[in-house]
## 1
Amino acid sequence: MNDLKITGIDVTLCETRVKGNFADSTRNVETIGFAVVDVSTDQGLHGIGVTYHEVGGEAIRDFIKYAIEPKMIGRSPFETEVLYEENFHYMRGVGRKGLAFCAYSAVDIALWDLKGKALGMPLFRLLGGTNPEVPIYASGGWTSYSTEELVAEAKMMVSKGYKKIKLKVGVEGGNNPDEDVRRVAAVREAIGPDIGFMLDANNVWRAATAIQFANKIREYNIEFFEEPVFADDIPGLAEFKRGTDIPLATGEHEYTRYGVRDLFLNHAVDILQCDATRVGGYTEMLRIMALSQAFNKAFAPHGMEHMHMHLVAAAPNGVYLEKLFMFDEVVKSVYLNAPEPVNGIMTIPEKPGLGLELNMDYIKECKGR
């Protein structure tokens, strides 16, 4: 199997309309979905990878078809380092961040899936991990919810066995921090003192406001505060860290190890949340994981738990996965029998590669839309 050759790449856009009123501090969520990549080989093996299809999925699909696929035909999926470097420089004028890098990320993940399948190994074991059980926290709590709805969802998460939950702050576009304080207090009272409690502001505040808010809610034992300021405002993130002792989580909007390096050098992160479906796939994420270990920071990737479970299981500093409840429907549609968390633990299947199988009936439906 080591002489596998890539013969083609298929991309399918799968999406669903959001059912309910989902809005965070800066954005209304209308549709969610995946751009699903299927890399075929001359020996019948297929590798799958995924990135987001919310805004710009059509551009991702076309970029893979016209820019990336021609560079892959005839190459071996084991060439992940060489292929990454070639494609990085090929698309560097348009692709160091954004949709082009999302596109390459999905393809790279599919190559790693192929490597695991060719070797007959789950990726977490191929990467050096031994424990298939990975902690995972529940994530939701939209700012568009009333306080009663927020509390009800938090209780639901705990009732499902999650030991840690994350909710959003920044109501009214971030213009009413005092109401956020009241909502945080209500949730903490409802879930009790023993449940891990994290917050996500989705980039809404300037550093001074974020620091004021953080210091008002520190009594509620917040495990981390995510993106209190705009993700690209590295000085603002650093200012936040200086102004409060609540750990700072960020990184989901970074692309490549260079952005991550700058977060570390500027003392602008405690818990790193990079997303393999954006930063360059497993190839770049492994470099980022090494950086996070060198700077002695926790690694807790953003969303996409089925793409990230192998990485967290293999990382000495991997702390947990994130389950975004809003993706439940599309996850259950795209995959056949994908693992689900039980009592806050995701158990990785002992199957080669990612250990995932596409629901081809659903994929065919997506193609026909």
## 2
Amino acid sequence: MSKKVLYELEFPVRCSPGILYEFLSTPAGLQEWFADKVDFRDNVFSFSWNGTTEEAEVMEQEEDEFIRLHWTHAPKDEFFEFRIQISEVTNETILVVKDFAEKKEVKDQSQLWEYQVKDLFHRIGS
């Protein structure tokens, strides 16, 4: 089994960090764009798609800045993260997505994130 690699994607977004953070860190916000159904209990999100449920534990978070999650079935050193940055040059809000994938699957996984984030931006009107 080959080791997964960390990759990072950046998406400029026309939205305040506070509003964006709500869509990245709450069950109601995540259910708008990330999964069909989202529940949160005891620091663990349950994401459901087409009857399949996956759980992710919140590893770390800072309001309006980032949330890092760990799929409970994945190796301990793997995570996915949503980070909100402000460009010093343009003062634009940037969503940074970090995730792990097999090296040969990074392109496909990146396209999946791009599709998901496009749906997020549609929901927030960006």
